[in-house]
Amino acid sequence: GYLLTFMGSRFYWISVAIFFAALTVVYENKKKDKLRKGGEK
């Protein structure tokens, strides 16, 4: 049971890390779009 819990928590943390990485990429892209639009004005 302990090993299974460890594997499950590790999988959970990997999922969280991937989620935050994707969130950061989206945020950075939005920031770049804002800068690009601001530069066009």
Structure in words:
The chain is 95% helix and 0% strand. The chain is an all-alpha fold. The protein has one domain. The protein is rod-shaped and about 60 Å long. The model has no long low-confidence stretch (mean pLDDT 86).
Helix content: over 70%
Content-based structural category: mainly alpha
Oligomer: single chain
**How far apart lie the N and C ends?**
60 Å
Strand elements, count: 0
Q: How does the overall form come out from the CA principal axes?
A: rod-shaped
Cα-atom radius of gyration: 18 Å
- Helical region count? 1
Mean pLDDT, to the nearest integer, reads 86
N-to-C series of helices and strands: H
Low-confidence runs of at least 5 consecutive residues: none
Structural domain tally = 1
Measured by DSSP, the beta-strand proportion falls in under 5%
Transmembrane segments: 12-27
Keywords: Membrane, Transmembrane, Transmembrane helix
List keywords for this structure.
single chain; membrane; transmembrane; 41 residues; transmembrane helix
Topology:
Blueprint: H1 2-40
Outline:
The chain crosses the membrane at residues 12-27. The chain has 41 residues and is mostly helical.
